[in-house]
């Protein structure tokens, strides 16, 4: 028996038992999905960071919030997450001011609720697929270990029909079993690293959004007080 050819990666996969092949197929599919989500999330978070930084600079440099609102409301499909939060808050501000209902505190509370609702939607969008990556990172090693245990059991059962066990008889079965463990780790490690990184980036963006949501109503309150004092 040629041990080298028997323990090549391709032959190990093709000669594995059906159950181990199913485990390997599941791990391969999960790994491909994970990498797809990783690249998509990298692009999404990078774009959101750039859009947030750009809007923060424009917001603090502008003295005309109405102009920013008109620009955001004119192209809602292309604006960033923070700009959508601002747009929802300023729209609520204009609605209350136009209706003339309630005092300044009621107006600001309405603005905060509108912004909070948009913030939750943006947060859900940024956190999409993170639960999948976390699940892959925690479960994949155990799925691979299951395939390993099953493969080793098959290898030892095969020895029952052999009069004298040698390395040539044992090595292919053990190697086949360990491939499942390797595939489990290959799926889990990138998923765990990506989840931790993306969770950190998402939290940082959420903190920036929340800071803006706290400051923006204060700006509106000052505008209301200034307008009231000028009457």
What keyword list fits this structure?
mainly alpha, 231 residues, single chain, rod-shaped, disordered N terminus
What's the structural blueprint in terms of helices and strands?
Blueprint: H1 3-6, H2 9-15, H3 18-61, H4 65-74, H5 81-99, H6 104-126, H7 130-159, H8 167-229
Question: Would you summarize the structure shown here?
Answer:
By secondary structure, the protein is mainly alpha-helical.
Percent strand equals under 5%
Stretches where pLDDT is under 50 for at least 5 consecutive residues are 1-5
Cα gyration radius (Å)? 29 Å
Oligomer: single chain
Structural class: mainly alpha
What profile does the largest beta sheet have? none
Order of helices and strands: HHHHHHHH
Q: Work out the count of structural domains.
A: 1
Kindly report the average pLDDT value.
Answer: 83
Tally the helices.
8
Shape summary: rod-shaped
Name the helicity range: over 70%
User: What distance lies between the first and last C-alpha atoms, to the nearest angstrom?
Assistant: 98 Å
State the total count of DSSP E strands: 0
């Amino acid at each position: 028996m040629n041990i080298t050819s028997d323990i090549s990666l391709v032959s190990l996969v093709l000669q594995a038992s059906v159950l181990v092949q199913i485990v390997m197929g599941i791990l391969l599919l999960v790994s491909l999905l994970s990498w797809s989500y990783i690249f998509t999330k990298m692009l999404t978070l990078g774009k959101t960071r750039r859009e947030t930084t750009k809007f923060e600079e424009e917001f603090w440099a502008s003295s005309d919030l109405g102009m920013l609102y008109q620009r955001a409301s004119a192209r809602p499909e292309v604006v960033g997450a923070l700009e959508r939060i601002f747009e929802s808050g300023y729209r609520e501000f204009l609605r209350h001011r136009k209706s003339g209902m309630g005092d300044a505190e009621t107006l600001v509370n309405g603005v905060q609720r509108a912004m909070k609702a948009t913030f939750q939607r943006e947060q859900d969008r940024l956190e999409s697929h993170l639960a999948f990556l976390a699940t892959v990172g925690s479960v994949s090693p155990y799925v691979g270990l299951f395939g390993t245990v099953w493969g080793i059991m098959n290898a030892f059962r095969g020895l029952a029909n052999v009069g004298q066990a040698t390395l040539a008889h044992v090595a292919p079965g053990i190697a086949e079993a360990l491939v499942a463990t390797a595939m489990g780790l290959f799926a889990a490690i990138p998923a765990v690293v990506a989840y931790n990184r993306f969770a950190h980036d998402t939290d940082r963006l959420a903190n920036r959004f929340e800071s803006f949501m706290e400051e923006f109503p204060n700006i509106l309150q000052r505008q209301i007080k200034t307008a009231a004092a000028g009457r």
